[in-house]
Amino acid sequence: NFGDDEDIRPEVKSLISSLPSYTDVEGKKLCNYQGCWYYYKNLQAVLDYQKNFKPLDTDIIVTSYPKSGTTWLKALTVALLQRSEDGLQNHPLTSDSPHGLVPFLEMKLYLKSSTPDLTNLSSSPRLFSTHMPLHTLREPLKDSPCKIVYVCRNVKDVIVSLWHFRSRIENKEAERSKLESIVESFCKGVNNYGPFWDNVLSYWKGSLEDPDHVLFMRYEDLKEEPYDQVIRLAEFLGCPFTQEEIHSGSVEKILDLCSLDNLRNLDINKSGIAWNKLHHSIFFRKGEVDDWKNHLTTEMADKIDMIIHEKFQGSGLRI
Ligand code: A3P
Predict the structure, then answer these.
(1) 10-312 adopts what CATH topology?
(2) Where are the chain's structural domains?
(3) How much is the pTM?
(4) Where are the transmembrane segments (predicted)?
(5) Complex ipTM, two decimals?
(6) Is 131 an annotated catalytic residue?
(7) Ligand 1 contact, 284 CB (< 6 A)
(8) Interval between CA 283 and ligand 1 midpoint (Å)
(9) Which residue from 31, 119, 158, 314 has the highest number of Cβ atoms inside 10 Å of its Cβ?
(10) Is 295 close to ligand 1, i.e. is its CB under 6 Å away?
């Protein structure tokens, strides 16, 4: 239970007691740090990250609000950086899951230790991921030129994806009452890593202010024009495709390797267990745009749209 007080150090407990807090419908406790809601254990890890992380200039950080396409973006990033002349056979993605190859800072590395050993990570450059908002992520990065890629997704699909994800974790049928409570918590903005709009806007604004170091991507764009988006990602990461690669179909090979069906059917993702004891398979479901239309009522959708419209107004962000 991430909302437990267990294993929280006294100085963190003392900080938590001074922060706004909230207990969700499942009885999990959250508190608000730098404008974002966290379960206590994740907050402790965020604080340890902020205090102890030493960036390298070449680091790459894959970021998102949960259920926005994190797994896909991690896979694409690994595939782009680790493409070699022998093609994609024996690619690292066939022997480890995207989450194993691109570990979460606050949900894995700093959750396990306040000073994790980052010297023997499997990737070079080092790859990390997070769901924390940009201002919180950037604190220890200071003037580091490391690259940050964010993926954003339509909030209504995020909600439906989260509903199914939570039900799968509990090994239960997806119940309507759960969906209603998720919609309500999203609308209030009091939920894990929420408010959703603040998370998205932190990266949207960051990408406008510093486009060389922050790239803002959309799940829907990746679905609609995967080829162009992967080329865009490769350029941002500093590993653009050569003409030769383009002609030899390298972009298509990467897209195939990272497709939902291919990843889902790899043994490692079919039967493997992730660091948090979850089955890798639960990160792969339908992967469709507008699946919310099958689940949300018009009333729910209108309410969410109204809030998001108001929050994103004037930002230039198209939703
Ligand atoms: P759905 O639940 O709508 O199917 P995250 O990786 O941030 O947890 O997001 C999970 C969502 O991304 C799920 O959406 C999942 O099916 C989808 N997804 C996972 N891998 C994908 C891939 N390779 N291509 C497209 N979508 C993918």
Answers:
(1) Rossmann fold (3.40.50)
(2) 10-312
(3) 0.96
(4) none
(5) 1.00
(6) yes
(7) yes
(8) 6
(9) 158
(10) no
